[in-house]
Amino acid sequence: MSRFLVALGLMIIGIGSISFPGVALADSPNILIMAEDGDADGVPRKSRISTRVLNAVVTQMDQEGFKVYDETAITLDTHTQGRSRRTDAELIDIAKSLRNPPIDVVVFFTVFSNVTRKSYSNDLNLRVVGRLLSVHDGRRLGNWEEEVPDRWSLPNRCFPNNKISRDCLLETVGSSAKKIAMGVSSVLAERLAHLVDGNKNASNSSGSQLEKGYSLIFEGFGNRNIREIEEYLVIFSGYKNHRPTTSMTKYVEFWYESTIKTSKLRRNLEKMMEEIDLDYAIKFTGNKFTIRNKNIRRRGERSKRRDSGKW
Fold first, then answer.
1. 211-270 pLDDT per residue, tens
2. Are the CB atoms for 258 and 216 separated by under 8 Å?
3. Residues 246 and 170 in one domain
4. Same domain for 83 and 227?
5. Beta-strand (E) ranges in 151-238?
6. What φ, ψ does residue 276 adopt, rounded to 5°?
7. Which of 13, 81, 251, 252 could be joined to 31 by an S-S link, Cβ 3.0–4.6 Å?
């Protein structure tokens, strides 16, 4: 009995073979699909298996309403094309570098294929392992292992002269790309839909939503201003948690976790600065907001005290 290991890796987001009518496109994350082939035992990203599996899962995700972007299309003008054997670090760096559109979540998954040779047949067994990853803060959003329940008997032509034909095996597995995609789609779709929508379809609509991590940097603010800023940060909608990561004279950085949209967080920060009544400059890159105090009072009186219901 001999074993032939085929490992192939892809980076995808939220595959779906189950219908989730509650998924709201306005709130769904931006998804990037990438082939991962850094492992020397893995199938190159240009192989037939990689291409067919990738196309199959893209089709299913699109049918379920998730926002999926093509790697080549959005990196054509900014990154070198056609590279193979890319490491996880390279793939994550590419995802984090994209701005138009910004990518929110990626998924690594690997399909392992074992060929078990017997005197009367040759069987192919498949197992899928992977993880969801948040691009903004590097959090692992879920892990899973999925084993395809039925085995496949390979055709005799894949074993000429009693030897394994790699091309034949790649073609056979590649032709079953749709079946592989359906085997993992329900797990990924359910997990992603829960992260995006929480429990919106249930009677209690306060379920969890996909959290994002932001770096909030405040330059030129005194201690009094920082204390007041913190009072605002905790009343913003979607607030989950925050903590200072750097604190020096006139420089404070917070790690801020929230389900709020980036655009709304920016509006809230601008509104906060207006109520604190200081002139400011704001800059945003990736998941980092930098707010600089110009040390100029814009009005003689402060605005009325904050109302937690208006954020």
1. 788 999 999 999 999 999 999 999 999 999 999 999 999 999 999 989 888 899 999 999
2. no
3. no
4. no
5. 152-153, 212-219
6. -70, -25
7. 13
